[in-house]
Design a protein that fits this description.
Elements lengths: L3 H9 L4 E7 L3 E8 L2 E8 L4 E3 L9 H10 L3 E3 L27 E6 L11 E7 L2 E8 L7 H5 L4 H8 L7 H16 L5 H29 L3 H22 L8 E2 L2 E2 L5 H27 L1 H7 L7 H6 L4 H5 L29 H25 L14 E8 L4 E9 L2 E8 L2 H12 L7 H8 L9
Parallel strand pairs: 4-5
Antiparallel strand pairs: 1-2, 2-3, 6-7, 7-8, 9-10, 11-12, 12-13
Helix pairs in contact: 4-5, 5-6, 6-7, 6-12, 6-14, 7-8, 8-12, 12-14, 13-14
C-alpha cells in the first residue's frame, strides 16, 4: 500500500489526482486517483497530528482546513490555518488574504445574495473594473450531514445522502448506494442498475438545459433562458410522471431502486427525448449566430488546462479545460453503452457551455439506448447487516461525487461525502482574475458550483 508521504509526492508531481481527504477516528484518510483507480491511504494519528498534504499539494488545503475544525486532528505544516466554518462570531475579523498594490479597492458581496440561494461571501480586490484577486468564504451552513448518518442503518442514511445537494439528488443517492453495496457485497438486480443510469441521465439533462439558459441570461440574452427553461420543465414533468418525483428524490436506494418504470412512463420518456432532441439544436444554432452573446462568453473566465489538471477538476469545468475524465466510464451499466466524453481546451465560459451542449446530446442518446435495452426483473436486492468499509465514485452533472462508508453491525459508523465543487470553487477564483467585475456572474454561472454540497 502507498505510504502517506509517497501519496503526497505523487499528487504534487501530477502522477495522481486528489479525490478527498478526511478524518476517521484517530487517523487521517486520503483518497487519490491513480490510473483511473481510487486508492485509500491512511495515516494513524495517535497523538492527534498528521503531516499536511496541503503543504505539498494546494488542492488539499481547504479539505484540511475543514478537517481541522470538524475533528480533533491537526494537519502539521498546513499552509493556511484560518478557521473554515462560520461560528456566528464577528464576521469582520475573518482574515482575508492580503493584496498589495496602488489604487486597489475591495468589493464585498454576500453572504446574503439577491436570490433564494445558500450563503457565500465573495471578496473582490480590483484595479478599477479589473479583478486582481477573488477570495471566497464558504462554510456558513454547517449542517452536520455526515454526523447525522452515523448510527443509522443504510436505508435511513440514504434519505440524508439524497438531500446533500438537491439538484444532484440522484447522483448522491447513486454514490451512497454503491458505497453501501461495496461494503456489504450486495448484487444489484440488472433492471435496477439500468434504471439508475436512466435517472442519472435525466438529472444531467435537466441541469445542463437549465445551465445553458442561465449562462445566456447572465450575458443579457434572456430568449435562450426562456426556451431552455421550457425544455427543463418538460424534463422535470416527465420525471414526475415516470418516477413520481420531479427530481427523482428517494428513487435510488441501497440494493436497487424504489420505483419501477411503467410502459406509459417509458413512452413519455421516449417522447421527451425526441422533443428535446429536435428543439435544442436550433437553440444552440441561435447561440452560435448571436455575435453579442459570443462577445461575452468567448475568451471570458479562462481556466488554464494545467490548473484543471492540478485540481483534478471534474465535470464540465475540467472537460472544458482539457481534463478527459468521466466516472461513468467505470460505472455499470455504462460500459455496455455507447457514448462520447466531449473535451475542449479553451477553458472559457463558451467552452463550458459547449461541453454542456454536447453532453445534452450524449444524454439524449443514452436515454434512448437504455430504454431500448432495459432488462426485465426485480428492482431491489436485500441489504444484509454486516461490517466493513467501501467507497464509490459516481458522475453527477457537475462532476465526480465520492462517498466512503465504514459500517459495523449493520450501522454506519463513519460516512464521508465529497462534492465536485470542493475542487471547482478555488478554480473559479483563478478563472475570474484579469476579467472585469461585471463578468463575474457569467463566470460564476458557467461553473455553477454547489454551496450545499460543499457545506456539509
Amino acid at each position: 500500500m502507498m505510504a502517506w508521504r509517497e501519496a503526497g509526492e505523487a499528487l504534487a508531481a501530477g502522477r495522481a489526482g486528489l479525490v478527498s481527504l478526511w478524518a476517521d477516528g484517530p487517523r487521517a484518510r486520503l483518497a487519490l486517483l491513480l490510473d483511473d483507480t481510487v486508492q485509500i491511504v491512511d495515516h494513524p494519528a495517535p497523538d492527534g497530528t498528521f503531516p499536511s498534504i496541503g503543504r505539498l499539494h494546494p488542492p488539499a488545503i481547504r479539505l484540511e482546513r475543514a478537517l481541522a475544525e470538524s475533528s480533533p486532528l491537526v494537519p502539521l505544516g498546513l499552509p493556511d490555518t484560518r478557521r473554515w466554518l462560520d461560528h456566528g462570531e464577528n464576521p469582520t475579523v475573518y482574515p482575508f488574504l492580503p493584496v498589495k498594490g496602488r489604487h486597489l479597492h475591495q468589493i464585498p458581496v454576500g453572504p446574503v445574495h439577491a436570490g433564494i440561494i445558500e450563503p457565500g461571501h465573495f471578496r473582490f480586490t480590483c484595479d478599477g473594473e479589473t479583478v486582481v484577486r477573488l477570495e471566497e468564504r464558504l462554510g456558513y451552513v454547517h449542517r452536520g450531514v455526515e454526523a447525522l448518518m452515523a448510527g443509522k442503518v443504510p436505508a435511513e442514511a440514504a434519505r440524508i445522502a439524497a438531500r446533500i445537494s438537491g439538484d444532484a439528488t440522484v447522483a448522491y443517492a447513486f454514490a451512497f448506494a454503491r458505497a453501501v453495496e461495496s461494503v456489504l457485497g450486495v448484487a444489484v438486480p440488472p433492471r435496477a442498475i439500468w434504471l439508475r443510469a436512466l435517472m442519472a441521465e435525466l438529472e444531467r439533462l435537466a441541469n445542463h438545459l437549465g445551465d445553458v439558459g442561465a449562462i445566456c441570461n447572465d450575458a443579457a440574452f434572456g430568449l435562450l433562458l426562456a426556451h431552455c427553461s421550457v425544455l427543463r420543465e418538460e424534463v422535470l414533468r416527465a420525471c414526475a410522471f415516470a418516477f413520481r418525483h420531479r427530481l427523482m428524490m428517494g428513487c435510488v436506494v441501497p440494493g436497487g431502486v424504489a420505483v419501477d418504470l411503467s410502459r406509459e412512463g417509458e413512452a413519455r420518456l421516449r417522447a421527451l427525448a425526441a422533443r428535446v432532441g429536435a428543439a435544442f439544436p436550433p437553440l444552440l444554432s441561435l447561440y452560435d449566430r448571436t455575435a453579442s452573446l459570443q462577445d461575452r462568453t468567448v475568451g471570458t473566465g479562462i481556466l488554464r488546462p494545467e490548473l484543471a489538471a492540478l485540481w483534478a477538476a471534474g465535470g464540465f469545468v475540467g472537460r472544458a479545460s482539457g481534463r478527459d475524465f468521466d466516472a461513468r466510464r467505470f460505472t455499470p451499466p455504462y460500459e455496455a453503452l455507447s457514448f462520447s466524453v466531449p473535451v475542449l481546451e479553451a477553458g472559457d465560459v463558451d467552452a463550458r457551455l459547449r461541453i454542456r451542449a454536447a453532453e445534452i446530446s450524449e444524454s439524449l442518446g443514452l436515454i434512448t439506448q437504455i430504454l431500448d435495452r432495459l432488462p426485465v426483473g426485480p428492482l431491489l436486492a436485500r441489504v444484509p447487516a454486516g461490517a466493513g468499509e467501501g467507497f464509490s465514485l459516481v458522475e453527477s452533472f457537475r462532476g465526480d461525487v465520492f462517498f466512503h462508508l465504514r459500517i459495523t453491525e449493520g450501522l454506519i459508523v463513519r460516512a464521508h461525502a465529497r462534492d465536485p465543487s470542493w475542487f471547482q470553487w478555488p478554480l473559479l477564483e483563478a478563472a475570474i482574475e484579469g476579467n472585469i467585475v461585471a463578468d463575474f456572474p457569467l463566470c460564476n454561472k458557467s461553473f455553477n458550483c454547489s454551496y450545499a454540497g460543499h457545506d456539509l
